[in-house]
Amino acid sequence: MHTCQYCKKSYSQKSALNRHERTTRFCMKLQEEKGKSIDPSIFLYCKLCNREFTNKKNLIYHENICGKKTVTKEEKKQENKREKEPESDSESEQDPEPESESLVPVDDIEVRINRKLKVLKTELDETKERLQTLTIKHISSLKNHKYVKFNNDKPCFYIIESDIPCNDCGSKTNLQYKFGIAGTSVDQKNNTIDKRLQSHRTLWPRLKVRFLLFIKDAILIEKNFKMMYDTEINPNGHEIVTGVPLKNITDRLEKLLGVLCTTHDEYHITPEKTLKKYNDYVETTVKPSV
């Protein structure tokens, strides 16, 4: 970059800087203030109104308005000199600054607009790249969520809620609950409630845990629920109940416990406070699907 020592404006080409210092009025004024003498031959005058210019384009534009075109000896010398010094493409793009007191040709305005559009397009492309990078990071972070663990490998009957509508069962409501069991297979360590929830999150990333019951008769409770909610269960399976309030489900579960168990020592219900920790994490961390 080449910087003007008087007004500090920068140019990529030395020839553009020289033209700037030779023809730009506000810079020439700074040069005079610093004691540099200005060559009077660079000034061009309209012969009709005697108005002074330092740029040939502006003079021509002005002369068309005045109604008379004039050519001075200085203009001929400048024109001959410019014809002998071919400019590169990058130099030709550096248009001299228009005189502040003169009208700017339409061609110069179009050039400036095109340059500004190029700058804006570059900034837009950079913004899109940054957005894409942030999106990739966000998607990656979703895979590394640290969900609350219940750390219990005993047989469990659970009720979870999804915020995804049940489109395949004809229901327009988001109120759908799924019940199921965990920790009942031979390989209990790989079928714990934490493993089951992890599996369900592939389909329902924002699922909420509404009820956890650790009991040895989890399989029997699941069978009873399938019979009790035979008509409300999604016909496509998955033990999904739609259109039934959660309280209705938990009330029936408590009545069933009263029949199966004689003491509270035979089962354990996860406290609401613990469930809330899991659900609050999901609510504040996992973004809703668009």
Task: Write up this protein.
- The protein has 290 residues and is α+β, with helices and mostly antiparallel strands.
- It has 3 domains: 2-104, no CATH class; 110-144; 156-285, no CATH class.
- The protein has helices at 14-23, 25-33, 56-66, 73-84, 89-92, 106-142, 193-200, 218-228, 246-260, 272-285, and strands spanning 2-3, 10-11, 44-45, 52-53, 156-162, 176-182, 208-215, 240-242, 267-269.
- Strands 8-6-5-7-9 form a 5-stranded antiparallel sheet. A two-stranded antiparallel sheet has the order 1-2.
- A hairpin with a 6-residue loop joins strand 1 (2-3) and strand 2.
- The chain is rod-shaped and about 115 Å long.
- The model is unreliable at 88-93 and 168-172 (pLDDT under 50).
Concise description?
The protein has ten helices and nine strands. It is an alpha+beta fold.
**What radius of gyration results from the CA coordinates?**
40 Å
Helix content: 40-55%
Biggest β-sheet strands, sense, barrel = 5 strands, antiparallel
Strands in their spatial order, largest beta sheet: 8-6-5-7-9
What overall form do the CA principal axes indicate?
rod-shaped
List the helices and strands and how they pair.
Blueprint lengths: L1 E2 L6 E2 L2 H10 L1 H9 L10 E2 L6 E2 L2 H11 L6 H12 L4 H4 L13 H37 L13 E7 L13 E7 L10 H8 L7 E8 L2 H11 L11 E3 L3 H15 L6 E3 L2 H14 L5
Antiparallel strand pairs: 1-2, 3-4, 5-6, 5-7, 6-8, 7-9
